[in-house]
Description:
- The protein has helices spanning 3-30, 38-58, 150-156, 161-177, 182-188, 190-206, 224-299, 303-310, and strands at 59-62, 66-72, 87-90, 96-102, 106-110, 125-128, 134-145, 210-222.
- It is of the alpha+beta class and 345 residues long.
- It folds into three domains: 3-101, no CATH class; 106-222, Band 7 domain (Tetrahydropterin Synthase, Chain A); 232-299.
- Helix 4 runs antiparallel to helix 6.
Amino acid sequence: MDIASMLKGLAGLLWVGWVAILAFVIFRAARKTPLKSGKSLIVIVLVIAIVMTTVSSGLVFTNPDERGVVISAVSPQGYRAEALQPGLSWIIPFAENVVFYPISRQTYTMSIATNEGAVQGDDSIAARTMDGQEIYVDASVIFAINPADVVQVHIQWQDRYVELIRAQARGIIRDVVSQYKVEEVVSTKRAELVQKITDKMRDKVEANGLILNDFVLRNIAFSAEYSASIEQKQIAEQQAQQAKLVVEQKKQEADQAREVAKGLADAAVTKAEGEAQARLIQAEAEAKAMQLIAEVLKDNPNLLNYQYITKLGDNISVMMVPSGSPFILPFPQTNGTGSTTTVVP
């Protein structure tokens, strides 16, 4: 409790005491037992009460978060040009009084929710975009009274300065929203929209002695018809995206099958080429071998007979052949006149 309030409380107690003393003195006088110093006591307490009341009426304490506008009956303007600063101040008792204004930050909210904001019920701002869509905006304005312009606020608005915030905010929001399409308001240019509203609001409120600390675009709602159309659009986009994914998946599967087939074909070609190359190499080797054998047989004709005999079974020592049957290979040991030929290894 500040000293000015304490003095006012003390002055009130003195007046109560003076009334009690006056009643007591009158009561004693009615009982024929007057109080000897009753009149003096009444006068003394009355004087002290008047002095205390006068002093308490002249002392004013201003809190740090407020400023006081002095309404003066002795000033030609009817008010003091300077507001009272924090602390104790003196005003002319009974000729001046003080109206206090808060300079701390205040918030004014306009919301579609019925239990939010200064106005009960739906207090959102209905605005129409450039393309004719109606939207509903929830917003909060954070502001304060400029300490240097408290007297101006009192003269122009008194305690109705919140009406200025409400009127300017609703009008500016509608005006700025009308410059954008609905898609821009909710997505691509929302930040630009908020900044433009903030700048216009700041110019308006500062011209009336207020300070705009921040503008908050809380929410944007749509009409039921537009919300339904957005939902249908989103469903269609999701279905198109899903179909695109299916097509892409099928394309990937086709590409994969194509790569697998190409790989198998390449493998088959590689295998065939390998087999052909192997056969070619084998044929070349066989040809060279036959050439070498031919060269050897040319110089050693009996070598073939020897190879033939060595390929016979180990237990064969005599071989019987029909008479007159020619041999593929001539045997030097063969007797041309007999019916049998005996070969002894």
